[in-house]
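User: Show me a protein chain along with its predicted structure.
Assistant: Here is one chain, sequence first, then structure tokens.
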Amino acid sequence: MSFKYLGDIAVADIAFEATGATIEELFSSAAQATMQVMVGELGSIREAETMQVEMEQQSAEMLLFDFLNELLFYKDARRLLLLPSEIKISQSGDHLLMRGELRGETLDGERHRMETDVKAVTLHRFSVTQTPEGWKATVVLDV
């Protein structure tokens, strides 16, 4: 599970490549990369609140897209900084079903050093692929 930022993909936005040995690890890596763009120090986010999340999509690509945008929705609408503590993804008919638990806390301007506000996850060069080593995603964030 890891991620690295890609400076050559988007000039005005922020791009990253996330990886994971499993698709669940990939989703966790991508969530951490997205949150770290906004909150420089992920360790400053306490696990004070727990939320359950359930999503369904036809592809891993669109499931990750929806998941990352859901994290941004909670940040914008409820001022919650959330990271996944548990994710399970399974096939459900012709769809992928993700169930997970998110943990985090309300944004505290004194404790959380906000670096950049991410407005949305874009579909520009967005991809999720299975590789011999596991899973890889390329994500461009609109900032």
